[in-house]
């Protein structure tokens, strides 16, 4: 089977938005999550100025565009993208885990609105909120972006595995649900992690961080 399938795919936004807003449990869950995020920003006194907000928006937009480019379509399901997590990881590295988690949260909500697959509000929270917010963990590893990248993507992987075991075990076809979920999510997230590490090794991230800091 030829899994190499580089192509650009526009998201089915209309169908996705219909999915999200046709079920009150979904959009009420989203509203609560956004309210909690706003409360977190206020309580934790997260510093957001115009420059940071602009960079977050650019990172989310770039990540969304990169996610539309598919490098490989995996046999079990899931696709390897053109490094869609890299902009969020960079934001976390530059501004720290709080801003990184906020960026990941917005990235996850954008992904949800453009390509929703929701079977339960709890699955929405795990797959789109927790999994993408986990990318902000990279901000804890200021001295080693490689370890930070692997830790962040590893936590996203763990979220998807848990979701798979709880909500999608019926697709395992008699196979152990945990093994199935690990294989399903690992086959596309492992290549994503490798691509992210390689690209971030090539990018002069320390210089990028220094240049951005000058303009804040």
From TrEMBL:
GO terms for cellular component: plasma membrane. The keyword Transmembrane applies. Keywords: Membrane, Transmembrane, Transmembrane helix. It comes from the Bacteria. The chain crosses the membrane at residues 26-43, 52-70, 76-95, 102-119, 125-141, 153-172, 178-200. This is Thiamine transporter ThiT. One of its GO terms (molecular function) is thiamine transmembrane transporter activity.
């Amino acid at each position: 089977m030829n899994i190499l399938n580089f192509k650009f795919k526009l998201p089915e936004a209309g169908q996705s938005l219909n999915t999200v807003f046709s079920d009150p449990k979904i959009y009420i869950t989203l509203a609560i999550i956004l309210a909690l995020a706003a409360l977190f920003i206020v309580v934790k006194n997260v510093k957001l100025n115009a420059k940071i907000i602009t960079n977050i928006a650019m990172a989310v937009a770039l990540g969304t565009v990169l996610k539309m480019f598919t490098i490989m379509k995996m046999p079990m399901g899931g696709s390897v993208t053109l490094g869609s997590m890299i902009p969020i990881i960079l934001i976390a590295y530059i501004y720290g885990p709080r801003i990184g988690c906020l960026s990941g949260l917005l990235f996850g909500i954008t992904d949800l609105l453009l390509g929703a697959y929701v079977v339960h509000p709890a699955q929405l929270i795990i797959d789109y909120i927790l999994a993408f917010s986990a990318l902000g963990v990279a901000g804890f590893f200021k001295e080693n972006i490689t370890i930070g990248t692997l830790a962040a993507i590893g936590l996203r992987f763990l979220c998807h595995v848990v979701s798979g075991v709880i909500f999608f075990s019926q697709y395992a076809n008699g196979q152990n649900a945990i093994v199935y979920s690990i294989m399903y999510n690992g086959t596309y997230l492992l290549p994503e992690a490798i691509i992210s590490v390689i690209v971030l090794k090539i990018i002069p991230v320390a210089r990028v961080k220094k240049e951005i800091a000058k303009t804040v």
